[in-house]
Design goal:
The two termini are about 20 Å apart. By secondary structure, the chain is of the alpha+beta class. It has helices spanning about 1-10, 15-30, 75-85, 115-120, 125-130; strands spanning about 40-45, 50-55, 60, 65-75, 85-95, 100-110, 165-175, 185-190, 195-200. The longest helix has 17 residues, at about 15-30. Strand 3 and strand 4 (about 65-75) form a beta hairpin. Helix 1 (about 1-10) packs antiparallel against helix 2 (about 15-30). It is about 25% helix and about 35% strand.
């Protein structure tokens, strides 16, 4: 299927097809935990002006609003990075489709508590568990036994105070289709909510 899509893009030289295929794969990856694009690498700039990369789970993607959402611990270093510099880069690779997607975005913390509670309640218990860790992510420990969890209660809100969601407003999307025929690469700029594309050299 991946080769068929690549051939069709090449034959038609359709920027729309190259984009539509990539966006649909991101949309599908939100729900499919085993999808390659369910995990994205996010790069932020820390307070020493150095890049800092980590994987995040793709929790929501809106084609209409051109936004991506992921969840994180308020105590994590990426929060300080984003508050200092909202510019981030997200990158993912779909091995089967031989498709790399790179996204430049502006990241913002969702601060609406009711919206966060709604997201929290819809999360699987195993997804909430990591926010119950007593100490902050990245803290130094001398032994693995020092990783302790606050006990959950019937209201299922233990850990919620550590939870937040990051809404990413997409500025550009780059797609790179890899093929033995010839690679295909395109860049799309968000201009007033519409992605305008151009071919670029792979």
């Amino acid at each position: 299927m991946s080769l068929e899509i690549i051939k069709k893009i090449r034959e038609t030289e359709s920027l729309d097809l190259a984009l539509e295929n990539a966006l649909n794969k991101l949309k599908r990856a939100v729900k499919k935990r085993n999808d390659d694009l369910h995990l994205l690498n996010v790069v932020s700039i820390n307070n020493q002006n150095k890049p800092s990369a980590r994987n995040v789970v793709l929790r929501d993607f809106s084609i209409e609003n051109l936004t991506i959402r992921f969840h994180t611990d308020k105590r994590s270093s990426k929060i300080d990075d984003i508050l200092e510099n909202k510019a981030i880069c997200l990158i993912g690779y779909d091995k089967k489709a031989k498709l790399q997607i790179r996204i430049d975005a502006d990241a913002y913390l969702i601060d609406d508590e009711e919206a966060l509670k709604d997201i929290w309640k819809k999360m699987y218990p195993m997804s909430r568990e990591c926010y119950r860790v007593s100490r902050s992510p990245g803290d130094r420990i001398d032994s693995l036994s020092e990783v302790e969890f606050d006990e959950d209660k019937e209201n299922n809100l233990i850990g919620f105070d550590n939870f937040t969601a990051i809404q990413c407003h997409i500025k550009t999307i780059e797609v790179l289709y890899l093929s033995h025929i010839a690679h295909i690469r395109a860049k799309y700029n968000n201009i007033n909510g519409i992605l305008k594309g151009e071919w670029i050299i792979p």
